[in-house]
């Protein structure tokens, strides 16, 4: 992996390369976010200085580009000058963001075929590139504001799909730890909260699962004047009633071992593997 955007912006060959100060880092991030596409000097100026560029901004950009090229070594030729701006050529597999999106796309395709085991492994491989809490930071307020929410949503959507595979495989116990900080950070993502509630319920922590719902409802009512979705409300009611149709899926012993030693004592009905939160919600219809 030559370029990294997920986490700290870095350039590496056999080892991490010192690309210079914050302006060089922001310049590289700006070019990577439009990899293989033209980036105008005006766009770069805004990324580097927001609304207060110095009078010498264009000369400074030329200097930063020159210095960045030198630090890029043989890859400096990939930073191409065009009239009015620059383009950074990035080959497949060289940018962690592209690889992350490719791996999660493959994982979703495997989910669609019902191959949850392979999908979970592909998600794990993707999350090795970008770890929780999935904060996107380049040092440029304009870049972070423009791209941060979209990229963070990309990561959390992948977390939700990954959680769905783990619930379907019977590996719900680790989710009670993994999802908690994300639920606190994204308190209105109902799919994420539903998965967290289900993982808690299946782990024998029904009171905590119901508390998650109550906190969401209180926030929605007080801040937005609305109620939780019909689907999440129905899930909450089924947890209250300890609905046996909401019991965990039957899974092989190795999967149960991965879920952890402490499993809830409840009647387990035989059902097709691969029915996590989505399956639970569909069975209420």
UniProtKB/TrEMBL annotation:
Ranges where the OmpR/PhoB-type domain occurs: 14-88
Keyword terms, alphabetized: DNA-binding, Transcription, Transcription regulation, Two-component regulatory system
Domain Bacterial transcriptional activator: 95-240
Region (Disordered): 251-285
SUPFAM superfamilies linked to this entry: C-terminal effector domain of the bipartite response regulators, TPR-like
A molecular function (GO) term: DNA binding
DNA-binding in keyword set: yes
Top-rank lineage group of the source organism: Bacteria
Pfam families tied to this protein: BTAD (PF03704)
Transmembrane segments: none
Family per record: Belongs to the AfsR/DnrI/RedD regulatory family.
The protein's name in its UniProt record: AfsR/SARP family transcriptional regulator
